[in-house]
Design a protein that fits this description.
4 helices, mainly alpha
Length: 129
């Protein structure tokens, strides 16, 4: 099984480079047109893949802040993924939905209560355990 490892690694690198090249925008391909890079990867898998990964694509590194928007104080959308609990838009929407649900739940008489603060059918009949 170990003798197949180099072949599997090469296959993985070729597939990754091919998909990366195919999904890259035309203007992000450096030195050669995108179709030429794809042909190089297919015809010369090792050299074409390594060439693409090293020199074929413009790699845009995000600044340390994580946002690739270029700064500014505008109210535009964030360009990177944000967890829901860190996203103020999501939290505001969630608060609005909760407020709407609370408004819809009035005292409409179907809450199975006798007015003693306990729901009907509760096993607690007032005796201590």
């Amino acid at each position: 099984m170990l003798r197949y490892l180099p072949l599997m690694v090469l296959l993985g690198v070729v597939i990754y480079a091919l998909i990366d090249c195919a999904t890259t925008k035309k203007e992000d391909a450096k030195h050669l047109p995108k179709i030429v890079w794809i042909l190089l990867i297919v015809l010369f898998p090792l050299l074409g893949s390594i060439g693409w990964l090293i020199a074929g694509r413009n790699r845009r590194h995000l600044p340390a802040g994580g946002s690739g928007g270029g700064g500014g104080t505008g109210g535009g959308r964030r360009s990177t993924w944000v967890a829901p609990d860190d996203n103020p838009e999501f939290l505001r929407k969630l608060g609005d939905e909760n407020a709407k649900d609370d408004e819809g739940k009035g005292d409409d008489g179907d809450d199975e209560s006798d007015g003693d603060g306990k729901r009907d059918g509760d096993p607690d009949d007032g005796r201590a355990p």
